[in-house]
Amino acid sequence: MGNNMGNNYRIIIINPNDNVGVAANNIPAGVTVQAGEYAICVLDDIDTGHKVALKDIKCGETVIKYGC
Amino acid sequence: MSGIIEYSYNPEKSGCDENSGDAAIGSNPCDLDLCDLRPNEPEIPQFMGYVREDGSVGIRNEIWIINTVGCVNKTAEMLAAKAQKEFEGLTDGIFAFPHPYGCSQLGEDHANTQKILTGLVNHPNAAGVLVLGLGCENNNIPEFKKVLGEYNPQRVKFLVTQEVEDEIEEGLKLIKDLVEYAAKFKRQPCPVSKLVVGLKCGGSDAFSGITANPLVGTFSDRITSMGGVSLLTEVPEMFGAEHLLMARCKNKELFDKTVALINNFKEYYIRHNQVIYENPSPGNKKGGISTLEEKSLGCTQKGGRGCVAGVLDYGEKAVEPGLNLLKGPGNDIVACTALTASGAHMILFTTGRGTPLGAPVPTVKIATNTGLYKRKRNWVDFNAGELLQGVPMDKLSDDLFNYVLKVASGEKTLNEKNNYREISIFKDGVTL
Predict the structure, then answer these.
(1) B387 — contact with chain A (CB < 8 Å)?
(2) What is the least distance, in Å, from the CA of B367 to any CA of chain A?
(3) Residue B14: what pLDDT?
(4) 8 Å CB contact of B388 and A10
(5) By CA distance, what is A34's nearest residue in B?
(6) What residues contact B291, with CB distance under 8 A and at least 6 apart?
(7) Which residue of A has its CA nearest to B215?
(8) What is the count of residue pairs from A and B with beta carbons less than 8 Å apart?
(9) Cβ A12–B205 below 8 Å, yes or no?
């Protein structure tokens, strides 16, 4: 089942307040994936299960996942 | 660092209000969704269950053989096997649950064994129970009866094997009486508010906290909003996320009990000179879990977002509708047994790597990923991996809820079909 980007890559957002999503498959660098209202272009290779920032997160800033 | 933390109760920050079933909106970002767990359905859904004489409901009509001591494990197993053959088709099955305890234990360790066995004897999935003793054990039948308290003599029979010549013949006679008693019960419509559902994760992987556990969380929210009970245990898996559960307690009393639940378990670790805050393992990190908090947040997703309505001691029966926290370890068999003994009719068990394990009650295995679901067709009942393929959570949540109603109404889970049913009792003490 594909997404609007026309590929099968998927990023899951668990809670609407999260600033990271989770890669549902291995995503190569440079691919753009639709995740909710975001279109994320991944900058690195992302392994399945790992986190992808949904917006800019500064160093030292809190990562929010599961709404917390 | 000792690991024991001082927690302070701040009702303004709490997500839950004692006076309403809903949650007050607090400043904790996690409780934004706590308000309004009211069901959308105009009526409470029903399942077909067995209504017992005390008003409790069972989802199976079985005969259980509960032995007071490990010395008669094999006697119990032999009785169950012979009785299954002799009384085939008359009940939902006759089962024994051997265990090595009931003697050579002291103090709280001995008491824990008695509490768990009591919980099993009183379980509503058992239409009838044969309590099998040896005679000389610490947990002998007269002693056990003191903990068991009141019982229905038609429903619970006792046999001291040392006191009879042929314990198999005598046991089968008693089981025959129990089978006849059990035959009186027929399935009838029961509201879902009567259900007590245990929540468990085991063999977790990176997706447990993403697919299956949040899915189970939606189930927990739904069943509790309808007046049912969900039970969350595995206290060590709460470390790192415990403040969130504390913020969802309805009142200070529950808050204090939750603090005690957490600190008590930490003290247990300390007594055994073990580290409390284990960082995620290399395997966890490779799979995408970066911190202990993330791991525990993933695990506690099973509890949904509802208010904490009760905090139970090991072996304590669940009575309050809503999400209850139950003292118990992460170990799969011990935790499943604890859930059963506290009254869980069935257990929703999420798994990423797979496990065939079954409790005495139907143990629904929910795969976190489709690969596991396809690979272990003999182990896994339900696939939450579909969430990774774009199936919406609402749809899968409905599917799971409907599946639970079917299981409650008699559809067998794989652990039942495989006849994988066992117990394990928590052990913390000397063995004489």
Answers:
(1) yes
(2) 15
(3) 52
(4) yes
(5) B390
(6) B240, B279, B280
(7) A14
(8) 53
(9) no
On the question of pLDDT at B29 being above 60, the answer is no
Closest-CA residue to B75 (of B182, B179, B174, B181):
B174
Contact B411, B49 (CB under 8 A): no
Which residues of chain A lie closer than 8 angstroms to B294, CB-CB? Answer: 65-66
The contacts of residue B19 (CB under 8 Å, 6+ apart) are none
Contact indicator for B386, B370 with CB cutoff of 8 Å: yes
B388–A24 CB contact, under 8 Å: yes
Task: Please give the pLDDT value at position B35.
Answer: 39
Q: How far is A59 from chain B (nearest CA, A)?
A: 16
Question: If 0-12 CB within 10 Å is exposed, 13-18 middle and 19+ buried, where does residue B268 land?
Answer: middle
A67 φ/ψ sector (left φ>0, alpha ψ -120 to 50, else beta): left
- CA distances to B121, B135, B208, B283, B352 from B280, rounded to whole Å, are 39, 47, 15, 8, 16
Q: Is the torsion defined by CA of B200, B13, B8, B297 positive or negative? A: positive
CA–CA gap between residue A44 and residue A40 (Å, rounded): 12
Q: Three-state DSSP class for B344?
A: coil
Q: Do B88 and B153 contact (CB within 8 A), yes or no?
A: no
CB spacing of B294 vs A65 below 8 angstroms: yes
Neighboring chain B residues of A20 at a CB cutoff of 8 Å: none
**CB count in 10 Å sphere of residue A68:** 18
pLDDT, position B275: 85
What whole-number distance in Å separates Cα of residue B55 and Cα of residue B46? 16
Band of residue B203 on the pLDDT scale cut at 50, 70, 90: confident
Write the ipTM.
Answer: 0.87
Q: Which residue of chain B is at minimal alpha-carbon distance from A67?
A: B30
Q: Nearest residue on chain A to B28, judged by CA atoms?
A: A68
This prediction's pTM: 0.91
* Distance (Å) from the alpha carbon of A4 to chain B's nearest alpha carbon: 12
Residue B286, pLDDT > 90, answer: no
In order of A44, A50, B114, B203, B304, the CA distances from A26 in angstroms are 11, 9, 50, 22, 28
Q: Would an 8 Å CB–CB cutoff place B34 in contact with chain A?
A: no
DSSP-assigned letters across all residues of B82-124? HHHHHTTTSSS-EEE---S-SSS--HHHHHHHHHHHHHHHT-T
Q: Is the pLDDT of residue B21 over 50?
A: no
B292 close to B284: Cβ distance less than 8 angstroms: no
Residues B294 and B268: their CA atoms lie apart, in Å, by: 23
